[in-house]
Amino acid sequence: xxxxxxxxxxxxxxxxxxxxxxxxxxxxxxxxxxxxxxxxxxxxxxxxxxxxxxxxxxxxxxxxxxxxxxxxxxxxxxxxxxxxxxxxxxxxxxxxxxxxxxxxxxxxxxxxxxxxxxxxxxxxxxxxxxxxxxxxxxxxxxxxxxxxxxxxxxxxxxxxxxxxxxxxxxxxxxxxxxxxxxxxxxxxxxxxxxxxxxxxxxxxxxxxxxxxxxxxxxxxxxxxxxxxx
Length: 229
Fold this sequence. Notes:
By secondary structure, the protein is α+β, with helices and mostly antiparallel strands. The protein has one domain (9-224): Protein of unknown function DUF1054 (BirA Bifunctional Protein, domain 2), CATH 3.30.930. It has nine helices and five strands. Strands 1-2-3-5-4 form a five-stranded antiparallel sheet.
């Protein structure tokens, strides 16, 4: 079974043009393109993804609200940035845990950008206390971590990514067999998506398959943080 494509070549064309003309005046003149070719298909995808997400876990939300839902806001936070460009030139969608409104909580993610689209599952930049709980959980049950993050099911679809410390974190055995994972500051898997997939009729099915493969990792992280899965 296939669905009508959500994103199209016009989505990527708008994002490329926005990157070349990242100014409020240009955006206002091209707002209808954004609404039709970026926001509307993103919200349509989110609205239809709920049943797929429920089959993975009932504790994650596909929220199609234009503001405050699963779709990341278009405006950049430029308060402390050198780059004052007002708009993001990518599409970000996060299916968040019901208990965590933060982008740093465990979840499932879709990133749409010309030449750099991907799907992800896990936790990005967890805060200090959460980071310690995850590392402690890895030490407490290394077998469960290896099944979740290095098992055949995960590796068939995803690859661990993110930032890591140069040295083992303080308080952990530098000779620990999983020291490379303990050095991580991010705990997520990524799966690259080509343009044909993102703009094709099978995107929903592909995302569901990737997220199912990443579900053991997300489940491990939820358990470490005391969240239901």
